[in-house]
Design goal:
about 180 residues; mainly alpha; about 60% helix
Length: about 180
């Protein structure tokens, strides 16, 4: 008496399996068939084939493989280690800082050298001033000595006066004596 439509699936008890029939309608007809004799990744296929097929490299998303090197290789790009990139960036920053420090040090050394040269020039000028003062005193002593000698020629009669004059002149000529 329940023999209505034979196209619907029935259970052995005579109930309808409508939800299974609807699920089958959404799948392609060859869904459960093996494609081209290939099996899905099994133990025998894994050992014989390269785990990174190149023909599907464009269709693989980033991060498909757990190993980042293998992932980059499968996608056909160069692998860049993040730690290595960070190290290179750090080296660039440090080299820039070292260059700036070297430049500042060179500038400081140049300024110190200029100051030292100016101090040395000032000391040299003071030394030449003392030499000039000594030459002026020498000229004054030479003039006094000429005057004494000219008066000595005129006055040859008094030997005792001459000894006193010579002693006074010795004081002028002895430049090593400290004046007190």
């Amino acid at each position: 008496s329940k023999s209505g439509s034979g196209s619907k699936s029935r259970t052995p008890a005579g109930g309808s399996i409508k939800h299974l029939q609807e699920a089958d309608e959404g799948l392609p007809s060859d869904f459960f068939d093996k494609k081209g004799g290939k099996t899905e990744a099994g133990p025998s296929a894994k050992g014989s084939e390269d785990p990174t097929p190149m023909e599907d490299s464009t269709s693989l998303p980033e991060g498909f493989f757990d190993d980042p090197i293998q992932d980059a290789k499968a996608r056909g790009i160069e692998y860049k280690d993040p730690a290595e990139e960070e190290w290179e960036a750090f080296k660039k920053e440090i080299s820039a800082e070292v260059a700036a420090a070297d430049e500042a040090q060179a500038e400081g050394e140049l300024q110190d050298t200029e100051e030292r040269q100016l101090d040395e020039i000032e000391e040299q000028m003071q030394a030449w001033s003392r030499v000039r003062d000594a030459e002026i005193k020498k000229d004054q002593v030479d003039e006094k000595l000429k005057i004494v000698k000219s008066s000595k020629k005129e006055d040859d009669s008094g030997d005792s006066d001459m000894d006193d004059d010579n002693m006074d002149m010795d004081e002028f000529l002895d430049w090593r004596l400290k004046k007190s």
